[in-house]
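For this section, I looked closely at the sequence of one protein beside the tokens encoding its backbone, which the following lines show:
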Amino acid sequence: MLLKKPRFKLPQGQKSRSLNAAELDMLAMELDALRQQTLSELGEHDAKYIRKIVASVRYTAMAGRGLLFLGWFPPAWLAGTTLLGIAKIMENMELAHNVMHGQYDWMNDPALQGKSYEWDTVGTSDNWRKTHNFKHHTYTNVKGMDDDVGYGLLRIFPEQRWHPFYLGQPLYALTLAMLFQWGVAIQDLEIGKYLQGRMSKQEFMARWQPTKQKIIKQLFKDYVFFPAIAGPMAIPVFLGNLAANGMRNLWTFSIIFCGHFTEDAELFPKSVVENESRGHWYYRQIRGSSNLSGGKLLHLLSGNLSHQIEHHLFPDIPAHRYAELAPKVQEICARYGIHYNTGRFSKQFGQVLWRILRHSLPSQPKMAQVVQAV
């Protein structure tokens, strides 16, 4: 049961109010209760949902690849590429990402186990579980601890120290968007550390070997096997696979950046995680995340990361449940005086682009305002 608290009226221009230790504990109690209630309701409805997603991915990909075999006819090539791109988006976003969070472990289906699922991208699932499930979700938007902040390439927040390298970041951002699966694939390699001599060759090669094997396997499937069995249609099949992967990369980049780098998303110093309570962890997740308002198609194709706030609060709850949780979370935020960051895609993505452009230019790094228990 939700604990009733008075609503707070924030001063002009202030997004969120400071919470004391007792309020943070109460916030944790409310959100924990909401999580437990939802987990207790999981059942056949949720199992049927994810199995429908598995079937949709499979048959959409089959239809797309089948049409690409008629690829010398432009309408067939366009339709096939679009369907294959949608299948890849759904597999990465609504299926793989959510399954790898363990959202469906309770089903005891070997094909849907979070620790063993391998997804359709050049990066390994093991690396993703480390960089995303552990690092990013534990240290969301903590400077120097969350590798997703700019992906080691971009200056997104004014708290990041400026360097002339960042003058080119509009180009870097475009390149990252087009090749996003490759950025994810090499993220855990920490190539910069190796080049700077802060990682041994032995450690780097140990990280590189599984990544190399996955890259070879993925490239062979998309750019050798399917073009080869297409015979005279090899070229349009090759190009269709290339374009479908490009569609998936651009869309994934856009959704992920909208979820973390809008105008109101905040960056935190390392000090926030020292003796951090569960309530403050919840509080930080809300302040570091952004939602997208929209219809069911947007939620589906985003893997329900359009509800990024709910995902960061409850990463192990099946994502299709976030739509029903969102109004409850928003109501809790309103009562505690916490800013609930949401907006349409065009608004949120526009803010992301502005951040990329604005922070490519010199500016004095500022200290983040740390709103902790007082």
